Amino acid sequence: MRKIILNVAVSLDSYIEGPNGEYDWCFDDQDYGLTDFFKACDAIFIGRKSYELIMRTDPKMFAAMKIYVFSDTLHDPQADNVEIIRSADFKNRVEEIRSQEGRDIWLFGGAELVEAFIKKNLISELLLSVHPVILGSGKPLFTNIKERINLVLLGAEQFSSGLIQLRYIVKP
């Protein structure tokens, strides 16, 4: 079974975007393990808003991956490597994809998609890149989670920039 890994940059106060949707606070001065992470993944789960942002800013960013966009409103996937998944097919389609041969699957986001995956217990690992910045407001990583979810720390890596990567699994 393929792993679904949430890999996301987050501020110290748990925001994934600033108050105006900005992510200019994310460090890009080092690799931070992204090259190895990309090699371990061959597919990406992404929400419509995040997908449209990628298509506007860097449409070739995920050209080597199979892209699954979760949307009930998007109709034209704009590329051969893109498949749209509707909410009615959500859990069955995700389980079907996980059971196929392949490498890990990157759960890219956004926050609403992460919430849906958490509520359906579909995340294998969480890889949080905690940036040493407090944004004060913006879009939080976790919203509308009403029940406690206990995690097990698999490891932590500290970088010279002050960024810390935390790797967790959901406690069985």
Describe this structure in words.
With about 170 residues, this protein is an alpha/beta fold. The chain contains four helices and ten strands, in the order E-E-H-E-H-E-E-H-E-H-E-E-E-E. The chain has an eight-stranded mixed β-sheet with strand order 5-4-3-6-1-7-10-9. The chain has a two-stranded antiparallel sheet with strand order 2-8. A hairpin with a 5-residue loop joins strand 9 and strand 10. The longest helix has 10 residues. The chain is globular and about 40 Å long. The two termini are about 15 Å apart. The model has no long low-confidence stretch (mean pLDDT about 95).
Structural class by helix and strand composition: alpha/beta
Order of helices and strands: EEHEHEEHEHEEEE
Helix content: 10-25%
Shape assignment: globular
Can you count the beta strands?
A: 10
| Major beta-sheet overview | 8 strands, mixed
Rg over CA atoms, rounded to whole Å, is: 16 Å
- Hey, roughly how much beta strand do the residues contain? 25-35%
The DSSP helix count reads 4
Tell me the layout of helices and strands.
Elements: E1 4-11, E2 15-17, H1 34-40, E3 41-47, H2 48-57, E4 66-70, E5 82-85, H3 90-99, E6 104-109, H4 111-119, E7 125-131, E8 139-140, E9 151-158, E10 164-170
Parallel strand pairs: 1-6, 1-7, 3-4, 3-6, 4-5
Antiparallel strand pairs: 2-8, 7-10, 9-10
